[in-house]
What we know:
Elements: H1 3-15, E1 28-32, H2 50-62, E2 66-72, H3 77-86, E3 91-94, E4 108-113, E5 117-122, E6 140-144, E7 153-158, H4 167-190, E8 197-201
Parallel strand pairs: 1-2, 7-8
Antiparallel strand pairs: 2-4, 3-4, 5-6, 6-7
Amino acid sequence: xxxxxxxxxxxxxxxxxxxxxxxxxxxxxxxxxxxxxxxxxxxxxxxxxxxxxxxxxxxxxxxxxxxxxxxxxxxxxxxxxxxxxxxxxxxxxxxxxxxxxxxxxxxxxxxxxxxxxxxxxxxxxxxxxxxxxxxxxxxxxxxxxxxxxxxxxxxxxxxxxxxxxxxxxxxxxxxxxxxxxxxxxxxxxxxxxxxxxxxxxx
Length: 202
């Protein structure tokens, strides 16, 4: 192949966007909605839609591309889908099971995304030990495809054991953090080049 042909091919590649891939910027947020998206259990006397309206207003101002939720309920799924449609989030993931082997918590975790969610999974403690049962509320792991990125973005929504005054609760939360670290370490061992991780929650 002549030098002239090579130069023309390079110019054509550059003109068609054949340069190095550059991921679009990603704006992220995490939101503990406290007793669900649309409920009167918010320790107030306001109307039934006040929680939903408040979350809608805040996200509309902040405009995150990806948002993780803590303290959703199973009954919040229609409201989560409505919120996603109103704010232009085409993709969502939500834990649908009990969420915990230890506490059978009614609180769920969810993720909304403006970028495609390739897959999502509820992280169970048994990945490390078949008898393990430490998570108060199991984390939600979503693999998100950000335009221009070479690797997927792994987003983990977590809601660890609450309480700081009791040693047992602090220890419990520390064990949960250890299990989450173990989970991420195993994923990195399986694919060392896949390194984009974000941990969101409280």
